[in-house]
Amino acid sequence: MDYKYSLLGSAVDEYRKRPLLLQVDDTPMNLFAVLEVKRELPRRWSTLSCFRKIRLYSFLFGLAIMFLIMASYILTGDKKGLLLTPSPYHFSSLVSPGPFDFNLSSVKDYAHIKQVVKSITSKVEFRSSRQPPELKALVNSEPHMFSVIPRKFLPGVKNPCWYEEYSGNITSDPYRTNLYARYSRRFRTVFQHLRNTFREHVFHHDGKPYRMRCLPYFYIIGQPKCGTTDLYDRLRLHPDVKFTTFKEPHWWTRKRFGIIRLSEGFHDRYPVEDYLDLFDQAANQIQGNLTANASGSPSQPNIIIGEASASTMWDNNAWMYFYDNTTKGEPPFLIQDFVHALQPDARFIIMLRDPVERLYSDYLYFGIANKSAEDFHEKVSESLQLIEGCLLEYTMRSCVYNTTVNNAMPVRLQVGLYIVYLMDWLTVFNREQILVLRLEDHASNRKYTMHKVFDFLSWGR
């Protein structure tokens, strides 16, 4: 189509006085087509202007080259140089490659992989020879935690709660230093509400102010990608169960060591007070029920608190950085040792699934693009070889809890070795305190599994 262009305005000698409008055919263009004609017409490019344009074009050209290089890494799948988790090839001195040195680049090397899997499973033991540490050793390793949480809780209350003397000024902000509020917008909103009602829940006795503190009655401790979120969502629909603002505080396994994300290194360690703050909303409700009972109301304090960090069962990776390595490569303390010392009557729910399905779901959830069955196969092969090499020198427990090996594996293969973790939990807790569910059963009959959960918690439906 041919266009005719004309200038709308007065005579040419008026061009210095006002902007001119550009017209295509006979239809004026919109506001964005207004052109301001300047006095210097026609302009000449100065040397400085040309230099600036050359710099701009050079920058854009460099940016385009960098984009093409990054795209080539993603599209070709050659991502080893970009991943935060190092390749097993970078850990050649860590463990020997194992007796079955198969070709990692081949996606058809199934025979050798089966040999490796068979070799690994032959090292699995359906018992634990672990001796739990003494209470004195636990207290010495975490003295502040044991000084804050008492050994006995309020009688007549189903949930473990106690009254803590408040040493601060009740008119000041009790949550101003909480690290969860620093990194979570949702918690900032919740804490704002708690600040506004804090003074209402301060209990005075003998002239001293006290606040109610609570720990969870039960924990959903694992495993990731096994349906724990669905169970959490269904349980919190019940009016008498309370969780924190978000599902997974990860305090026992990560936050108390200052770990937010492993790739970011260590931050400030979250004190136990920050963790207890997460349950203040539920504690206020339990305290309200106790007050109502004292006034003659027939209501009962049946509220229970749950916590659903799916890392609690298995993640002890921080031990290598904080505890002395005097136990032949195995952690001297596990998460359950501390929980048992503080809450010997706690209850735990574990959701499991086919470990291969779990691993593939985990693989799809984490990492960058360009996922495929072939890429998954290669990463599993690398992880299998690392574990097999570790088992040449160490026990299965040592390899499962080996932080260096775990960080080297491109997929979290160790999380699927359920038996190791479960046996270790049973060294400190009774079988009656742990409920193990299968995702496959839950998916086929949710009503049945939820009834099992309610019965396990001794809880009304």
Give structural attributes.
Rossmann fold; 39% helix; 2 domains; globular; 12 strands; disordered N terminus; 11% strand; 461 residues; alpha/beta
Task: Give your account of this protein's structure.
Helix content is 39%, strand content 11%. The protein has helices spanning 47-76, 110-121, 135-141, 143-148, 179-183, 185-197, 228-235, 272-277, 280-294, 319-322, 335-342, 355-365, 373-391, 396-400, 403-408, 418-425, 439-444, 446-456, and strands at residues 5-8, 20-24, 27-28, 34-35, 161-165, 203-205, 208-214, 218-222, 241-242, 304-307, 347-352, 434-438. It is built from 18 helices and twelve strands. A hairpin with a 2-residue loop joins strand 2 and strand 3. The strands form three sheets. A five-stranded parallel β-sheet has the order 9-10-8-11-12. Strands 1, 2, 3 and 4 form a four-stranded antiparallel β-sheet that branches. Strands 5-7-6 form a three-stranded antiparallel β-sheet. Residues 1-45, 72-95 and 102-107 have low confidence and may be disordered. 28% of the residues are buried. Residues 219-457 form the Sulfotransferase domain. This is Sulfotransferase.
Summed up:
This protein is of the alpha/beta class and 461 residues long. The chain has helices at residues 47-76, 110-121, 135-141, 143-148, 179-183, 185-197, 228-235, 272-277, 280-294, 319-322, 335-342, 355-365, 373-391, 396-400, 403-408, 418-425, 439-444, 446-456, and strands at 5-8, 20-24, 27-28, 34-35, 161-165, 203-205, 208-214, 218-222, 241-242, 304-307, 347-352, 434-438.
